[in-house]
Specification:
The complex is a heterodimer. By secondary structure, chain A is of the alpha+beta class. Chain A has 22 helices and 29 strands. The chains are: A alpha+beta, B alpha+beta. The interface between A and B is large, with 66 and 70 residues. Bound molecules: FE2/S2 (inorganic) cluster (FES) (2 copies). Chain A: Its cofactor is Mo-molybdopterin cytosine dinucleotide.
Chain lengths: ~775, ~180
């Protein structure tokens, strides 16, 4: 019964955002509200000898200045994020070493990265708070700084956190098949090192927290620009020692997340504490310079990889040892690292596989998952290898891909690995060879090859690069929905997964509207508020549509059935003989004799007028928690056509094509928007974006002048094609789509650049492919 | 407020807080006079003093364009201007775009039709840049010109393609009116 699912329904979110009436956390103003500013470390690694806050405290308009010692006994230190610890069967299987490494709220005796919070000033307004921050004097004793993970790993290296004994925070290994014997059977092997640098997700809205404590009812109200309000609530409760139900965390309009807002940060604990302490609302809004330093970064992996293959291109085995430079802390267990290991083989059948991952700590900002979360790194490795194999065998890379694809008839395909959620990793469906074919048709591959030859003779370097991905999406453990009809007959759907650009209010209302046979206008979706339902998880890891969408569908369907049963009582007709449409329920045989949703909702109330059938609970509401059996696998192909200016090393993207399978498409306009936006971020990673630290651990790329976010000039209009293999792992057949766009561009663009420069045999082993780097490679190749 | 604005009073262990000045200006058609600190940024003045929170602050160092407003008809980054500099000026913010009855103007409507926003944080800045461009350029621009027009605004969500479509649609619906 899908009338609205699958349609380009216009967004319900837009009106407020277009008229400036949306409410982001910085827009919240409360009576008597104080504002906070934070003093952050200017050293990457140093002992704190002394902090002098006396002048700051005396400054007019200052309410409080807190340092680590002031929090002792009041705010507990962070524990690790249990939400990301490994399920026990996976733990059994890979027997990882994971050392606990939670971060302090405020640095006490020592700082371990530039940007780490040391002191918080609360004042009557932000200007005064920043004045006072400038009056705090910290005496540092510099310690040796580690910025290179290979150095940090060495036995003789200074240890950042003494209690961990060394700087290797985690270690794990995954093995499939028999790597040694496979390598012995190979005709060729290639050994190389591939690197994906550190980047920053950089949502356009920075982080921010507002907290207000109401003494009368002991209620703590917190607004935070977060992807995970429930997680924020749970840690405030644990660390500030409050009854959980007395805390309400709201994620209002959130200006992008992309992963970095999927952690709980010290400010989200301490600002609420300060609001309670001073019985005044307190607001803290991060500025962009703080954001670049202290909001968590991501990626930063180096893979030492070796691949064994036959002369016909069949890949026999792959061996990889990689380091993830996680900065000064890791509270996310093996999240990105294990994702990389699980996804590295992608769509390819590689029966013998051995990967060792190590998470190493350095004096940089801690890392967290960011759009793709370990997959772009893995795809960069795999798809560069495909091109290197093709070079070695002197065949078109497409042939190497085709040779090694998992075939549609092999679906569902058992990968012989566990997924991060502890289930067997089984790819449920899909047709990869067909997907590639579709992508190559759109770009006109054969024709391009012709054109490329002609253009080369004219001295023009154009190239084509392909990359592919699979992605486990819609991870559990659960997501819930409450669907109810209020006494005015309006339908409400509350979900635990809160949006930050993903269009939940629109797409989830489409799902609900279809169940009730009404227009999405008659459904209001609410999210991002812990008071809506008892449990919630959040929006990250391409999970919103899969988990919240399924919960809304099941809850809507059950409420519809209940309404038919009540209407049956009201009309004295068997529910099976009833129809529900356009807000009315009537006997199929006699549409004029109807009751409205409003009337049914009133009849659902308890009491003497209730028409709820015997044995059924009164009430016009159903709650359902969807628990995915496992993740569902999206997949896709990206093809980039680029032109390289040999003189300047400048890369121009001439065309970009994406074919993807995200199962059932709820709203094509929204899905395409997610892909286009993801590709733009991926292009940033491929060509422009890199977080750079100097040898002293100083952040060199701390502004938007140094950290280059793609503008409209750099991002092409992506041409898209769709495959629609419905997922059997949820009732609506969807697969997640949020991250896919960002996964492939580093690989597809690097491959395209190598393809363009084939006459010079240039190998790109790291991104971003900045003009100066590419120019260096060109010069080097020409000199040979 | 960013470190840049702290920079203005580096050696001020003590700041003249009584130091207020008077500004008179016209904001979204309304004349007003206010007493403000000279160091107050125009973006903060609009958001905090006037409650016009539709103007967003994304970087406070003049790159992202989220804070774009019109000052005497020209698009300006309000995070790079002091409120005192706006004395005597006519200012328009995103709140001025829709009609009194709440209906969206051409460009706002085109944004909604083309899914030109996701999180919507950058949107007010884009709308104001485009508003100023459309006032100054009546002729339908080329794709390159459109990209140029929005190249000073960052959007981290949309990848721009739908914003470009929206601008095209806004021009054609304006021309067909
Ligand atoms: S906030 Fe003014 S340009 Fe970014
Ligand atoms: S819509 Fe989110 S930054 Fe543009």
């Amino acid at each position: 019964m899908s009338k609205y699912v699958g349609q380009n329904v216009k967004r319900k979110e837009d009106y407020r955002l277009l008229t400036g009436t949306g409410i982001f956390v910085a827009d919240i103003r409360l009576d008597n509200m104080a504002e906070a500013a934070i003093l952050r470390s200017t050293y990457a690694h140093a002992k704190i000898k002394n902090i002098d806050i006396s002048k700051a405290k005396e400054y007019e308009g200052v309410i409080d200045v807190v340092i680590a010692s002031d929090l002792e006994g009041k705010v507990k230190p962070f524990t690790e994020f249990v939400e990301f610890t490994l399920p026990s069967n996976l733990e059994q299987e890979i027997k990882p070493t994971i050392k606990r490494n939670p971060e302090p709220m405020l640095a006490k005796d020592k700082v371990t990265f530039v940007g780490q919070a040391i002191a918080i000033v609360v004042a009557n307004n932000r200007y005064l708070a920043e004045d006072a921050v400038a009056l705090i004097k910290v005496e540092y004793e510099p310690l040796p700084v580690l910025t290179d993970p290979y150095e940090a790993k060495k036995e003789a290296a200074p240890v950042i956190h003494a209690e961990l004994n060394n700087n290797i925070q985690s270690h794990f290994e995954v093995k499939v098949g028999n790597i040694e014997s496979a390598f012995r059977q190979a005709d060729y092997t290639i050994k190389t090192q591939l690197k994906t640098p550190r980047v920053s997700g950089n949502p356009l809205e920075t982080r921010g927290v507002v907290a207000e404590y109401e003494e009368r009812s002991s209620q703590l109200q917190v607004w935070s620009s977060t992807q995970v309000p429930y997680m924020v609530r749970s840690y405030i409760s644990k660390l500030v020692n409050l009854v959980e139900d007395n805390i309400r965390v709201v994620a209002p309009d959130v200006g992008g997340g992309f992963g970095p807002k999927c952690a709980v940060y010290p400010e989200e604990i301490v600002i609420p504490y300060l609001a309670m302490k001073h019985k005044r609302p307190v607001k803290w809004i991060e500025d962009r310079l703080e954001h670049m330093q202290s909001t968590r970064h991501s990626r930063d992996q180096v893979h030492d990889v070796e691949v064994a293959f036959k002369s016909d291109g069949t890949i026999l085995a792959l061996k990889d040892h990689f380091l993830l430079d996680n900065g000064a802390h890791n509270s996310f267990a093996l999240c990105c690292a294990y994702n990389s290991a699980a996804h590295l083989r992608g769509m390819y059948k590689i029966p013998n596989y051995n990967i060792v991952g190590e998470i190493v700590l350095t004096n940089k900002t801690p890392n967290v998952p960011y759009r793709g979360a370990g997959r772009p790194e893995a795809v960069f490795v795999m798809d560069r290898l495909i091109y290197m194999i093709a070079d070695k065998l002197n065949v078109d890379p497409i042939e190497v891909s085709r040779k090694n694809f998992i075939q549609p008839e092999e679906m569902p395909y058992e990968t012989d690995l566990f997924y991060r959620d502890g289930t067997h990793m089984v790819l449920e469906n899909g047709d990869y060879p067909e997907g590639l074919k579709q992508a190559l048709n759109i770009v006109g591959y054969e024709q391009f090859r012709q054109e490329q030859i002609e253009e080369r003779t004219k001295g023009r370097y154009i190239g084509i690069g392909v990359s592919s991905y699979i992605e486990g999406t819609g991870i559990g453990p659960h997501e819930g929905a409450v669907v109810r009809v209020d006494s005015s007959g309006h339908i409400l759907a509350y979900v635990g997964s809160s949006p930050h650009g993903q269009s939940h209010e629109t797409t989830l209302s489409q799902i609900c509207a279809d169940e009730f046979g009404v227009s999405p206008d008659q459904v209001t979706v609410k999210a991002g508020d812990t008071s809506l339902l008892p449990y919630g998880v959040g929006t990250f890891a391409s999970r919103g549509a899969v988990t919240a969408g399924s919960a809304v569908q099941v809850a809507s369907k059950r409420l519809r059935e209940k309404f038919l049963a009540i209407a049956g009582e009201m009309l004295e007709v068997a529910p099976n003989d009833l129809e529900m449409k356009e807000g009315k329920v009537y006997p199929k045989a006699l549409p004029s004799k109807f009751v409205t949703l409003r009337e049914i909702a009133l009849a659902a109330k308890p009491g003497p007028r209730s028409k709820v059938p015997e044995g059924m609970e009164p009430g016009a509401s159903v709650t359902h928690y969807f628990i995915p059996p496992s993740v569902t696998f999206s997949s896709g192909f990206h093809v980039a056509i680029v032109e390289v200016d040999k003189q300047t090393g400048f890369v121009t993207i001439l065309k970009y094509v994406v074919i993807h399978d995200c199962g059932r498409v709820l709203n094509p306009m929204v899905v395409d928007g997610q892909i286009q936006g993801g590709v733009a971020q991926g292009i940033g990673g491929a060509l422009y974006e890199e977080i750079i630290y100097d040898e002293n651990g100083q952040l060199v790329t701390g502004t938007y002048m140094d950290y280059l976010i793609p503008t409209a000039m750099e991002v092409p209009v992506v041409e898209m094609g769709h495959q629609e293999f419905l997922s059997p792992r949820n009732p609506i057949g969807v697969k997640g789509v949020g991250e896919g766009g960002a996964i492939c561009p580093p690989a597809s663009i690097a491959n395209a650049v190598c393809d363009a420069m084939k006459p010079l045999n240039i190998k790109i082993n790291s991104v971003p492919i900045s003009p100066n780097r590419l120019r260096d490679l060109i010069q080097l190749a020409e000199a040979q | 407020m960013s470190v840049f604005s702290i920079g203005m009073n580096v050696n001020a262990d003590r700041i003249e807080q009584q130091n207020v000045v008077s500004v008179a200006l016209n904001v979204n058609g309304e004349k007003m006079e206010r007493q403000i600190e000279p160091r107050l940024l125009l973006s903060d003045f609009l958001r905090d003093d006037l409650g016009l929170t539709g103007t967003h602050v994304g970087c406070e160092h003049g790159v992202c364009g989220a804070c774009t407003i019109l000052v005497n008809g020209e698009s300006v980054r309000s995070c790079l201007m002091l409120a005192v500099q706006a004395d005597g000026c006519e200012i328009k913010t995103v709140e001025s775009l829709s009609s009194k009855d709440g209906s969206l103007n051409t460009i706002q409507q085109a944004f909604a039709n083309n899914h030109a926003l996701q999180c919507g944080f950058c949107t007010p800045g884009f709308l104001m840049s485009i508003e100023s461009y459309m006032k100054n350029n009546s002729k339908q621009p080329s794709d390159e010109e459109i990209k140029e027009c929005i190249s000073g605004n960052l959007c981290r969500c949309t990848g721009y393609s739908n914003i470009i479509s929206a601008i095209k649609e806004a021009y054609s619906s304006k021309n067909s009116q």
